[in-house]
Amino acid sequence: MIRWMRSARIAPGKNMEAIQFATEIVEYVKKKYEGAPDTGVFVDSFGEIGTIRWCADYADFASWEKVTGQMVADPEWWQKMDAIKDLFIPGSAHDVVMRSLK
Fold this sequence. Notes:
Layout: E1 2-9, H1 15-32, E2 39-43, E3 51-58, H2 61-72, H3 75-83, E4 94-99
Antiparallel strand pairs: 1-3, 1-4, 2-3
């Protein structure tokens, strides 16, 4: 199993808009891209307060690459990313891809 996680820090004063975007983009991905898994949306309660995290589990790297490839080739995806620049602190996005040892 492969677990993907993206985190981003919410810009000051943008909590509600960022949380709304975080949940809406999950629905967009699930409907638009073949093989997209259910994705959880989380907000840190301790540590980096104001951090949103998206987490999704894939069967293997090939499954993750398939969905990621569909995203980067989709002009609508990039329009959505461009439209939300002010919701997150620039440079705060961080992706992690982990593999299960079992």
